Amino acid sequence: MKASVSEECIGCGMCEGICPDVFEVGDDGLAHVIVDEVSADVEDDAKQAAEDCPVEAITIE
Ligand code: F3S
Q1: Sorting pLDDT into bands at 50, 70 and 90, what band is 2?
Q2: Which atom of ligand 1 is nearest to the CA of 49?
Q3: What are the b/e assignments for 13-28, b being 16+ CB within 10 Å?
């Protein structure tokens, strides 16, 4: 499974709070995916982050 963050991100930080193994808010104030592949044990958290992102900037596939 892969995750990505679009330019819609407003840097609210929710995703990092829910799933810090996958998402990190960088110095640019925007979230970045810090893994190539989302590991099975954090898939649910990554999906939750995508659901909870207020601007739906996260895609999981
Ligand atoms: Fe950005 Fe959404 Fe995360 S706005 S910081 S991708 S929760």
Answers
A1: very high
A2: 7
A3: ebbbebbeebbbbeee
